[in-house]
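Researcher: Let's continue the batch. This sequence belongs to Aldo/keto reductase, and it's 339 residues. Same format as the previous ones, please.
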Amino acid sequence: MRTKILGKTGLSVSALGFGAMRLRGLDQAEADRVVNHALDRGITYVDTAAEYGDSEEKLGKAISHRRSEYVLATKTQKRTYQEAMQEIEQSLRRLQTDYLDILQIHYVNYPHEYRDVKKADGALRAAEEMRAKGYVGHIGITGHRPELLTRWLQDYPFATVLFHLSMVQPFAKQELMPMAESLDVGMIAMKPISGPFLSKVKESLRYSAASSAHVVLSGMQSIAEVDFNIEALAQEVAAEERMALEEMAVGLDEHGCRRCNYCSCPLGIRIPDTLIPSRYREKFGLLEVGEELWQKSADHFAACMTYEPCREKPLCQQACPYHLPIQQEIRRAIDEKVM
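Model: Same format as before. Here are the structure tokens for Aldo/keto reductase:
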């Protein structure tokens, strides 16, 4: 497994990171097998969050006895000092460790959320206190809006930043990644196959790995997935292949969706899961589970066109911070008969 230095943290990390969110779908015995296999194969970056069900507990039981072998990152989505402190302490207990290499302020997508965590009684104060006491090594931030993350990296000395990066969500390349690189911030690129969607898995992993990101973070739930991902990223991406992958990705981001999840649909359309894979689906098709998710939304597409509260200005578009023409995208899907 290739390794890199994670920016100004100085931590040596594997180019492939183990995303532990999907452990909540496994029993403890299988979680033990999968995560220990990942460590045996050379993965040294493990990422979880307090919000990921029982993921932290399963990790603690599975690999806490091998604590010196991996860099451990978890997250708090709490915004106040007291709540964040309680959650960080809980994470330490669940993970059966006395230190976190990285504590990330999680899912910060709006300016008011950032202001909240930076208040005198905000979550950042809790993270800083735990760092001063030796329970936290470095403080990072995560979010789904790269232009805001770019701004916040300039405002506070975060050591790491976690963001989407895939063929269908390359937006971090525009401003965020150059800024992080200039500040020597550790870059962790998540969702290289956009959750369960992109069918050309190897190419998708290598697209993300061809960037300046230090870690490509992939959610894994089986030994087969671990082995596949490791083999996919075994070799560095050469210039010729990088150009081919960039060409493959041309136009796949025209939907414009960042998956900030501030839109909603009263009809049950999963808007990010509709927009983000839309162009990719037309060109390459989706993984089976991704196609099933698409169809759940597609069942409601026709109703979207006649839903009275959305006739003049769709509710989802009013909520979208990017003012995307969401209903127009859904109409396009109907017109193109790609359902």
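Researcher: Any comment?
Model: The CA atoms of residues 140 and 181 lie 15 Å apart.
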